[in-house]
Amino acid sequence: MAIRHDDLIVIDGLIVSDFGPEVFADMRRGGVTAANCTCSVWEDFATTMRTMARWRRWFREHADLITPVHDVADIHRAKAERRTGIIHGWQNTSAIEDRIEYLELFHALGLRIVQLTYNTQNLVGSGCYESRDSGLSDFGRDVLAEMNRLGILCDLSHVGPKTSEDAIRASQRRVAYSHCLPAALKDHPRNKTDAQLRFIAERGGFVGVTMFPPFLARGAAATIEDYLDAIAYVIDLVGEENTGIGTDFTQGYGQAFFDYITHDKGDGRKLTDFGEVLNPEGIRVIGDFPNLTAAMERRGWPAARIERVMGGNWLALLGDVWA
User: What is the pLDDT of residues 121-137, one digit of tens each?
Assistant: First the structure.
């Protein structure tokens, strides 16, 4: 029996788009139940606080489209109310500066997912573009322990391999690569080796598969089938119960944004050149999400696998970590 996309709980493990009513409406067109929406990359405490304040205004002004998520019950409520649940997430720990107590403050405002480092070195550890990965710092271990205490998911997508390994070993809760691709399909500093993918899964961790074109083997020429190939590869490696979606949609952004995220701390040395950023044919925008379900069906994936990968696995992970 065919599976209906509208019946699924669809969770995207990472969206970093130019948020506003147009993106919110497209989330609804795509049937996205909930998404980890980035509200800090290189920003400091004050700038991140302003961003989270703006989200509170959006929740009021666009209550027909979006709703805040603090626990898994909020995700189920979003599904029932046909709105998209917004999970506040960071791609860096720069917003706490050197004050661990700020984590609890942001958690009270809805912060539920935090990536330890964004591409380069910070007070916590090293990123994937840092020339020497020195591992998780002592301060980083304290930050991770506080995240564990509060129930904030630790994300390691942009984190360096040694720092990631240290965090996986040190964390008392499950951790995730919320948005990554296998290095076996394309050798790139942002992609994870088979050993790294197995290591996180063997220790209870999770892998969200991205479709960000610079990290796909065919780049801007990729299609939705290439994205499915990557998802299938990860499933074969770590198991379908440990695999989900983490698109890394950058919808609405232009070159200025990509310049910002590809320079150290936003305006330092250039770290990488993405080239053309064109999402895979068939899933160019968030509203195309139903095409992903249809593509899985064409491959003959059973309904249980589709339900898990499209959101069920994320729901279980978040339930574990946020409990």
Answer: 999 999 999 999 999 99
How much of the chain is helix, strand and coil, in % rounded to 5? 45, 15, 40
For residue 2, the model assigns a pLDDT of 78
Summarize the confidence of residues 2-30 as an average pLDDT. Answer: 97
Amino acid at 139: F
Cα(307)–Cα(313) distance, integer angstroms: 8
- Does 1 score more than 80 pLDDT? no
Going by C-alpha positions, the residue among 111, 123, 188 that lies closest to residue 155 is 111
Measured in whole angstroms, the distance separating CA 241 from the mean position of its chain's CA atoms is 17
- Name, in order, each residue with C-beta under 8 angstroms of 304's C-beta and a sequence gap of 6 or more: none
How far apart, in whole angstroms, are the C-alpha atoms of residue 10 and residue 156?
22
DSSP β-ladder status, 111-115 and 34-38: unpaired
Q: How many CB atoms lie within 10 A of CB 297?
A: 15
Asked if residue 228 lies in contact with residue 206, where contact means CB atoms within 8 angstroms, the answer is no
C-alpha dihedral over 233, 12, 319, 175, to 10 degrees? Answer: 50
DSSP result, 33-95: -EEEEE--SS--HHHHHHHHHHHHHHHHHTTTTEEE-SSHHHHHHHHHHT-EEEEEEES-SGG
pLDDT in tens, 138-182: 999 999 999 999 999 999 999 999 999 999 999 999 999 999 999
DSSP state of 249: B
Torsion angle (degrees, nearest 10) of CA 46, 35, 249, 270: 40
What pTM was estimated for this model as a whole?
0.98
